[in-house]
Amino acid sequence: MYAKLRTPVRAAVLGLGLVALPALAQNVAKVNGQPIPQIYMDVIVKEQVAQGLPDNEQLRQAVKDELIRRAVIAEQAKKAGLDKSPEVKAEMELARQGVLVRAYLKDFVAKNPVSEEEIKNAYEKIKTMYSGNELHTRHILVEKEDEAKDIIAKLNKGTSWDELAKQSKDTGSKDKGGDLGWVTPDMFVPDFGTALGKMQKGETSKTPVKTQFGYHVIRVDDVRPQTPPPLEQIRPQIEQQLQQQKIQKHLEELVAKAKVE
Predict the structure, then answer these.
(1) Which CATH fold would you assign to the domain 132-225?
(2) Are 141 and 191 in contact (CB under 8 A)?
(3) Average pLDDT rounded to a whole number, residues 114-138
(4) Average per-residue pLDDT in the chain?
């Protein structure tokens, strides 16, 4: 039974059991005379549909079965006096607070949406981060400086880069000819990044570049100006980040106003 329902269903059922609800004319079922309100079903189904599950008879039956199971277990827990346990009471209160917190934040987001102007302003700031060039880079990493010098010497004599790259210690790139893709110097440790930043298209490092990982021979295949991704490509991430900032600022203001002793 549990495998048929996504984890949030069980959490939602638990949360619903802690929230006082008005008497309803329609119930999902009765367990030992105690009704399970239809709204319990409605809330959980809505949540599951939002997560991609289809609203069908199979889902509703699974939710109903889970609600009945919960009601039976909860009744037995009360008979055993577990609801009087300080720890259980604390957990129930925390769960109740969690439901209220989620409801409050959902309401706040609905009333304080991110505007198109805010999104565009944030995108303009992102665009300023894309200055300079990015380089299509390869490298061969070895343990000793003499090994790196030997590789450079062999390259100068016409040995294939791809052949030499097979001895690289970098297992992530050795089978791809040491290809690191399109990168910028600030993506690497300082010594590597500094050396890379001084290189031109088609250039191979003339001396080994030492880092904490070993000795590198670096090659730059191509250079192009950095360009930011289109706004529409990163719009969801920008909107989510801005919304989180709004929430964080609001919560900080609420806490600052609260009397905490």
Answers:
(1) Chitinase A; domain 3 (3.10.50)
(2) no
(3) 94
(4) 91
Contacts (Cβ under 8 Å, ≥6 apart) of 231: 119, 120, 123, 238
Residue 214 Cα distances to 102, 204, 260, angstroms: 50, 17, 54
Domain spans in the chain, listed from the N-terminal domain onward: 2-111, 117-126+230-257, 132-225
Among candidate residues 117, 119, 233, 213, the one with its CA nearest the CA of residue 168: 213
> What sign does the CA torsion over 47, 48, 52, 54 have?
negative
CA–CA distance, 173 with 168 (Å, rounded to integer)? 8
Parallel/antiparallel/unpaired status of strands 27-31 and 209-211: unpaired
Alpha-helix runs per DSSP H in 139-209: 145-156, 161-165, 190-197
Lookup: tokens for 24: 């309803």
Number of helices (H), then strands (E), in the chain: 9, 6
* pLDDT tier for residue 6 given thresholds of 50, 70 and 90: low
Strands 209-211 and 179-183: unpaired
Using the predicted structure, report yes or no on whether residue 16 has a pLDDT greater than 50. Answer: no
How far is it, in rounded angstroms, from Cα 193 to Cα 221?
16
Global pTM value: 0.63
CA distances from 81 to 76, 77, 95, 214 (A): 9, 6, 19, 65
